Amino acid sequence: MAISKHRIFAIWANMKQRCFNKNNPDYHNYGGRGITICERWLKFENFKDDMFKTYFEGATIERENNNLGYSLDNCHWTDRQVQGNNKRNNRKFEFNG
Fold this sequence. Notes:
It is a single chain. By secondary structure, this protein is α+β, with helices and mostly antiparallel strands. The chain has one domain. The protein has 3 helices and 2 strands; from the N terminus they run ααββα. The protein has helices spanning about 5-20, 45-50, 80-85; strands at about 60-65, 75-80. It is globular, with a radius of gyration of 15 Å.
């Protein structure tokens, strides 16, 4: 399969859309609030070189610090369930103590 048809390419392309395309419905949560992509990752080959080796089927890209941009030192692959726990709008509650 050509890499451009692989899911990792779609993840990269969607990441760029969220950060740079003001017409993207999610832009306000990403580019609109200052989330950037490191210069190295603006080229797909560099993103692939950095991230493909740890990619697994069904993975999503997650930023460890949601207030920082997309870069090798702030991103890793995870699954949707774990990523859902790392959202800005999550609220943590203490129960029974």
